[in-house]
Amino acid sequence: MRKIVIAIDGYSSCGKSTTAKAVAAELGYAYIDTGAMYRAVTLYLLERNIAFDDLPRIEQALHDIHIAFKRNRKTGRNELCLDGVIREDEIRQMRISNSVSEVSVIPAVRHTLVRQQQRMGRKRGVVMDGRDIGTTVFPDAEVKVFMTADVVTRAERRQQELAAKDEHVALEDIVENLRKRDHIDSTRAESPLRRAADAVLLDTTHMVIEEQVDFVLERVSASLFSLAALGNDQNGREAVV
Ligand code: DC
Protein backbone atom coordinates (compact mmCIF):
# COMPACT_ATOMS: atom_id res chain seq x y z
CA MET A 1 0.00 0.00 0.00
CA ARG A 2 1.15 3.52 -0.80
CA LYS A 3 2.83 5.35 2.11
CA ILE A 4 2.03 8.93 2.93
CA VAL A 5 3.22 11.73 5.22
CA ILE A 6 0.98 12.74 8.11
CA ALA A 7 1.73 16.18 9.55
CA ILE A 8 0.38 16.99 13.00
CA ASP A 9 0.99 20.59 14.04
CA GLY A 10 -0.40 22.78 16.75
CA TYR A 11 0.06 24.31 20.17
CA SER A 12 2.07 22.69 22.99
CA SER A 13 0.36 20.03 25.12
CA CYS A 14 -2.71 19.51 22.93
CA GLY A 15 -2.04 15.78 22.76
CA LYS A 16 -0.14 15.96 19.45
CA SER A 17 2.56 13.45 20.35
CA THR A 18 0.25 10.94 22.04
CA THR A 19 -2.06 11.05 19.02
CA ALA A 20 0.80 10.91 16.51
CA LYS A 21 2.43 7.97 18.29
CA ALA A 22 -0.80 5.97 18.33
CA VAL A 23 -1.52 6.75 14.67
CA ALA A 24 2.02 5.67 13.70
CA ALA A 25 1.68 2.41 15.68
CA GLU A 26 -1.67 1.68 14.03
CA LEU A 27 -0.28 2.20 10.53
CA GLY A 28 3.19 0.73 11.11
CA TYR A 29 4.69 4.14 10.27
CA ALA A 30 7.70 5.84 11.87
CA TYR A 31 6.90 8.53 14.44
CA ILE A 32 9.08 11.64 14.58
CA ASP A 33 8.71 14.10 17.44
CA THR A 34 10.33 17.24 16.01
CA GLY A 35 9.85 19.17 19.28
CA ALA A 36 12.25 16.67 20.90
CA MET A 37 14.89 17.73 18.36
CA TYR A 38 14.54 21.45 19.30
CA ARG A 39 14.66 20.40 22.96
CA ALA A 40 17.86 18.41 22.33
CA VAL A 41 19.60 21.43 20.77
CA THR A 42 18.48 23.52 23.77
CA LEU A 43 19.93 20.97 26.22
CA TYR A 44 23.18 20.85 24.25
CA LEU A 45 23.58 24.66 24.27
CA LEU A 46 22.69 24.98 27.97
CA GLU A 47 25.14 22.26 28.99
CA ARG A 48 27.97 23.99 27.15
CA ASN A 49 26.98 27.49 28.33
CA ILE A 50 26.56 28.64 24.75
CA ALA A 51 24.57 31.89 24.74
CA PHE A 52 21.52 31.91 22.45
CA ASP A 53 22.91 34.95 20.60
CA ASP A 54 26.42 33.54 20.08
CA LEU A 55 25.89 32.62 16.44
CA PRO A 56 29.40 31.35 15.61
CA ARG A 57 29.34 28.91 18.55
CA ILE A 58 25.76 27.87 17.72
CA GLU A 59 26.75 27.14 14.13
CA GLN A 60 29.69 25.06 15.35
CA ALA A 61 27.36 23.23 17.77
CA LEU A 62 24.93 22.45 14.94
CA HIS A 63 27.81 21.00 12.98
CA ASP A 64 28.99 18.83 15.89
CA ILE A 65 25.70 17.71 17.43
CA HIS A 66 24.25 14.30 16.62
CA ILE A 67 20.50 13.85 17.09
CA ALA A 68 18.72 10.56 16.44
CA PHE A 69 15.80 8.50 17.70
CA LYS A 70 16.36 5.05 19.17
CA ARG A 71 13.65 2.52 19.78
CA ASN A 72 13.46 1.33 23.38
CA ARG A 73 12.77 -2.40 23.06
CA LYS A 74 11.20 -2.58 26.52
CA THR A 75 8.67 0.23 26.11
CA GLY A 76 8.47 0.25 22.30
CA ARG A 77 8.95 4.04 22.52
CA ASN A 78 11.21 6.09 20.28
CA GLU A 79 13.63 7.92 22.53
CA LEU A 80 15.72 10.93 21.77
CA CYS A 81 19.41 10.22 21.55
CA LEU A 82 21.88 13.11 21.82
CA ASP A 83 25.46 12.26 20.82
CA GLY A 84 24.73 8.57 21.34
CA VAL A 85 23.14 8.94 24.79
CA ILE A 86 19.40 8.70 25.53
CA ARG A 87 18.32 12.03 27.05
CA GLU A 88 14.54 11.58 26.83
CA ASP A 89 13.79 12.54 30.45
CA GLU A 90 16.07 15.58 30.59
CA ILE A 91 14.69 17.21 27.45
CA ARG A 92 11.16 17.16 28.98
CA GLN A 93 12.18 19.07 32.14
CA MET A 94 10.81 22.57 32.80
CA ARG A 95 14.27 24.16 32.48
CA ILE A 96 14.30 23.04 28.85
CA SER A 97 10.64 24.00 28.27
CA ASN A 98 11.49 27.47 29.56
CA SER A 99 14.26 28.02 26.98
CA VAL A 100 13.29 25.94 23.95
CA SER A 101 11.19 28.61 22.22
CA GLU A 102 14.13 31.02 22.33
CA VAL A 103 16.34 28.41 20.67
CA SER A 104 13.75 27.49 18.06
CA VAL A 105 13.56 31.08 16.74
CA ILE A 106 17.23 30.91 15.64
CA PRO A 107 17.19 30.53 11.82
CA ALA A 108 20.38 28.40 11.71
CA VAL A 109 18.81 25.95 14.18
CA ARG A 110 15.61 25.74 12.14
CA HIS A 111 17.43 25.24 8.83
CA THR A 112 19.53 22.40 10.22
CA LEU A 113 16.62 20.60 11.90
CA VAL A 114 14.19 21.09 9.00
CA ARG A 115 16.73 19.54 6.60
CA GLN A 116 17.23 16.58 8.95
CA GLN A 117 13.44 16.11 9.32
CA GLN A 118 13.02 16.16 5.53
CA ARG A 119 15.68 13.46 5.24
CA MET A 120 13.93 11.39 7.93
CA GLY A 121 10.65 11.49 5.99
CA ARG A 122 11.96 11.22 2.44
CA LYS A 123 10.69 7.64 2.03
CA ARG A 124 7.31 8.73 3.42
CA GLY A 125 5.44 6.40 5.81
CA VAL A 126 5.94 8.87 8.69
CA VAL A 127 3.83 10.68 11.25
CA MET A 128 5.62 13.88 12.22
CA ASP A 129 4.46 16.26 14.90
CA GLY A 130 5.60 19.81 15.46
CA ARG A 131 4.78 23.41 14.60
CA ASP A 132 5.77 23.81 10.95
CA ILE A 133 5.48 20.33 9.45
CA GLY A 134 2.49 21.07 7.21
CA THR A 135 3.77 24.54 6.25
CA THR A 136 7.56 24.16 5.89
CA VAL A 137 8.94 20.65 6.43
CA PHE A 138 6.39 18.75 4.32
CA PRO A 139 4.09 21.26 2.60
CA ASP A 140 3.09 18.32 0.36
CA ALA A 141 2.00 16.08 3.27
CA GLU A 142 -1.08 14.10 2.25
CA VAL A 143 -2.75 14.54 5.66
CA LYS A 144 -2.38 17.72 7.70
CA VAL A 145 -3.98 18.21 11.11
CA PHE A 146 -3.71 21.37 13.20
CA MET A 147 -4.42 20.75 16.89
CA THR A 148 -5.55 23.25 19.47
CA ALA A 149 -7.17 23.18 22.95
CA ASP A 150 -8.04 25.51 25.78
CA VAL A 151 -4.83 26.66 27.55
CA VAL A 152 -5.92 25.56 31.07
CA THR A 153 -6.83 22.09 29.81
CA ARG A 154 -3.42 21.89 28.14
CA ALA A 155 -1.68 23.01 31.35
CA GLU A 156 -3.55 20.38 33.40
CA ARG A 157 -2.44 17.64 31.00
CA ARG A 158 1.17 18.86 31.12
CA GLN A 159 1.05 19.05 34.92
CA GLN A 160 -0.04 15.40 35.07
CA GLU A 161 2.73 14.33 32.69
CA LEU A 162 5.35 16.12 34.80
CA ALA A 163 3.91 14.75 38.06
CA ALA A 164 4.19 11.22 36.65
CA LYS A 165 7.93 11.94 36.37
CA ASP A 166 8.01 13.34 39.89
CA GLU A 167 8.35 16.96 38.78
CA HIS A 168 5.70 18.99 40.61
CA VAL A 169 4.97 22.38 39.06
CA ALA A 170 2.19 24.86 39.92
CA LEU A 171 -0.60 25.11 37.32
CA GLU A 172 -0.11 28.91 36.98
CA ASP A 173 3.55 28.41 36.09
CA ILE A 174 2.66 25.93 33.37
CA VAL A 175 -0.09 28.21 31.99
CA GLU A 176 2.43 31.04 31.87
CA ASN A 177 5.03 28.86 30.13
CA LEU A 178 2.48 27.68 27.55
CA ARG A 179 1.24 31.24 26.86
CA LYS A 180 4.79 32.49 26.46
CA ARG A 181 5.70 29.62 24.13
CA ASP A 182 2.49 30.06 22.09
CA HIS A 183 3.37 33.72 21.65
CA ILE A 184 7.02 33.15 20.66
CA ASP A 185 6.13 30.18 18.42
CA SER A 186 3.41 32.05 16.52
CA THR A 187 5.18 35.40 16.12
CA ARG A 188 8.70 34.29 15.14
CA ALA A 189 9.91 35.37 11.68
CA GLU A 190 11.13 31.94 10.56
CA SER A 191 8.35 29.39 9.88
CA PRO A 192 5.98 30.54 12.65
CA LEU A 193 3.34 28.26 14.12
CA ARG A 194 0.30 28.66 11.93
CA ARG A 195 -2.33 26.45 10.41
CA ALA A 196 -1.59 25.48 6.78
CA ALA A 197 -4.45 26.49 4.47
CA ASP A 198 -5.17 22.83 3.75
CA ALA A 199 -4.84 21.57 7.36
CA VAL A 200 -7.93 20.35 9.16
CA LEU A 201 -8.53 21.90 12.60
CA LEU A 202 -8.87 19.60 15.60
CA ASP A 203 -9.87 21.14 18.96
CA THR A 204 -9.06 18.53 21.61
CA THR A 205 -10.41 20.40 24.66
CA HIS A 206 -13.27 17.94 25.16
CA MET A 207 -11.79 14.91 23.44
CA VAL A 208 -10.12 11.78 24.71
CA ILE A 209 -7.08 10.32 22.98
CA GLU A 210 -9.04 7.52 21.24
CA GLU A 211 -11.30 10.10 19.57
CA GLN A 212 -8.30 12.12 18.41
CA VAL A 213 -6.64 9.02 16.99
CA ASP A 214 -9.84 7.95 15.20
CA PHE A 215 -10.20 11.44 13.75
CA VAL A 216 -6.71 11.31 12.20
CA LEU A 217 -7.11 7.70 11.03
CA GLU A 218 -10.33 8.64 9.22
CA ARG A 219 -8.44 11.39 7.41
CA VAL A 220 -5.74 8.90 6.48
CA SER A 221 -8.30 6.43 5.06
CA ALA A 222 -9.94 9.21 3.05
CA SER A 223 -6.57 10.32 1.69
CA LEU A 224 -5.48 6.78 0.74
CA PHE A 225 -8.85 6.18 -0.88
CA SER A 226 -8.65 9.29 -3.02
CA LEU A 227 -5.02 8.59 -3.96
CA ALA A 228 -6.02 5.09 -5.07
CA ALA A 229 -8.94 6.52 -7.04
CA LEU A 230 -6.62 9.03 -8.69
CA GLY A 231 -4.14 6.25 -9.52
CA ASN A 232 -6.87 4.15 -11.13
CA ASP A 233 -8.06 7.14 -13.10
CA GLN A 234 -4.57 7.92 -14.39
CA ASN A 235 -4.11 4.28 -15.42
CA GLY A 236 -7.18 4.56 -17.61
CA ARG A 237 -9.29 2.36 -15.38
CA GLU A 238 -12.57 3.31 -13.87
CA ALA A 239 -12.15 5.93 -11.15
CA VAL A 240 -13.67 5.23 -7.76
CA VAL A 241 -15.43 8.36 -6.50
O1 DC B 1 6.31 19.92 20.95
P1 DC B 1 7.18 20.46 22.07
O2 DC B 1 6.43 21.23 23.11
O3 DC B 1 8.06 19.42 22.66
O4 DC B 1 8.15 21.52 21.33
C1 DC B 1 9.11 22.23 22.04
C2 DC B 1 9.36 23.57 21.36
O5 DC B 1 10.02 23.38 20.12
C3 DC B 1 8.13 24.42 21.07
O6 DC B 1 7.94 25.41 22.05
C4 DC B 1 8.43 25.08 19.75
C5 DC B 1 9.56 24.30 19.15
N1 DC B 1 9.21 23.58 17.94
C6 DC B 1 9.32 24.25 16.75
O7 DC B 1 9.62 25.44 16.74
N2 DC B 1 9.09 23.59 15.58
C7 DC B 1 8.76 22.30 15.58
N3 DC B 1 8.55 21.67 14.41
C8 DC B 1 8.61 21.60 16.81
C9 DC B 1 8.84 22.28 17.98
Question: What does this protein look like?
Answer:
- The protein is α/β, with parallel strands linked by helices.
- The chain has a single domain (5-224), classed as Rossmann fold.
- It contains ten helices and eight strands.
- It has a five-stranded parallel β-sheet.
- α2 (34-47) crosses α6 and α8 (151-164) crosses α9.
- It is globular, with a radius of gyration of 18 Å.
- The model has no long low-confidence stretch (mean pLDDT 93).
- The structure holds 2'-deoxycytidine-5'-monophosphate.
- Its EC number is 2.7.4.25.
- It holds the Pfam family Cytidylate_kin.
- It is an enzyme of class 2 (transferase).
Per DSSP E runs of 2 or more residues, the count of β-strands stands at: 8
Q: How would you write the strand order of the largest sheet?
A: 2-6-1-7-8
Low-confidence stretches: none
- Biggest sheet character: 5 strands, parallel
Order of helices and strands: EHEHHEEEHHHEHEHHEH
- What is the CATH C-level name? Alpha Beta
CATH superfamily: P-loop containing nucleotide triphosphate hydrolases
Count of folded domains: 1
What percent of residues are in strands? 15-25%
Percent of residues in helices comes to 40-55%
Mean pLDDT: 93
N/C terminus separation: 19 Å
The CATH topology:
Rossmann fold
What would the principal axes of the Cα set say about the shape? globular
User: Which ligands are bound?
Assistant: 2'-deoxycytidine-5'-monophosphate
Structural class: alpha/beta
CATH architecture: 3-Layer(aba) Sandwich
| H/I helix tally | 10
